[in-house]
Amino acid sequence: MNPVLHLASASPRRRELLTQIGVPHTVLSADIDETAHAGEAPHDYVQRMARNKARAVWEKETRLPVLAADTTVVLDGVIYGKPRDRAHALEMLAHLSGRTHEVLTAVALAAARGIELRMNVSSVKFRVLTIEECAAYWETGEPRDKAGAYAIQGFAAVFIESLIGSYSGVMGLPLYETAELLRSAGIAHWCKMGP
Fold first, then answer.
1. Whether this model's pTM surpasses 0.85
2. Nearest in space to 157 (alpha carbons), one of 124, 122, 121, 130
3. What is the rounded end-to-end Cα distance, in angstroms, of the chain?
4. Per-residue pLDDT of the chain (195 residues; tens, 9 = 90+)
5. Buried b (16+ CB within 10 A) or exposed e, 171-180
6. Which of 8, 74, 99, 174 could form a disulfide with 120 if both were Cys (CB 3.0 to 4.6 A apart)?
7. Going from the N-terminus, what domains does the chain have, and what CATH number goes with each?
8. 144 contacts 87 by C-beta, under 8 angstroms
9. How far is CA 106 from CA 54, 89, 102, in A?
10. How far apart are CA 9 and CA 88, in angstroms?
């Protein structure tokens, strides 16, 4: 099947989720500066990142629409991005332990008519974690490239007491919002779309 859009992400999870809803695509990763601006609110940051990723790929390749997403974990107004190293990951997990945090995922679609954006906010509650669990989790390799140092679809599933919101959003591509963007651009997913 011919691709109908470019996915501006090297994330295998986002590829799997897009494939799950039957959208043939190609991957063209966006190389952008992901540094938060001083005083930037988490909602503004994640939306800016998704827009910038979509724009960066669209400026290189305009043959197909470009879908991009960005996910971040937020606790007490602080952005928890990807951990720098083991100590940073263990610190993040210790802060998340026994508490509820937000996972923000923005999805952007760049096409000839401009960039459209949708936002998903989910709440995730962790059970209390031990230092030993956090250290063992680091050794799995899973936290190294994940916002908040965990993957809901992986070993960290046993840490999660409750989730209010979108499981796919916490994974990195909220499928409801993604389907809305695709529908607005006339791009079909697995089911034929109505008006």
1. yes
2. 124
3. 24
4. 788 999 999 889 999 999 999 999 999 988 899 899 999 999 999 999 999 999 999 999 878 999 999 999 999 999 999 999 999 999 999 999 999 999 999 999 999 999 999 999 999 999 999 999 999 999 999 999 899 999 999 999 999 999 999 999 999 999 999 999 999 999 888 865 444
5. bbbbbebbbe
6. 174
7. 5-184 (3.90.950.10)
8. no
9. 11, 23, 13
10. 24
Q: Which long-range contacts (CB under 8 A, 24 or more apart) does 81-86 make?
A: 81/34, 81/147, 82/144, 82/145, 82/146, 82/147, 82/149, 83/143, 83/144, 83/149, 86/138
Tokens standing for residue 182: 């695709």
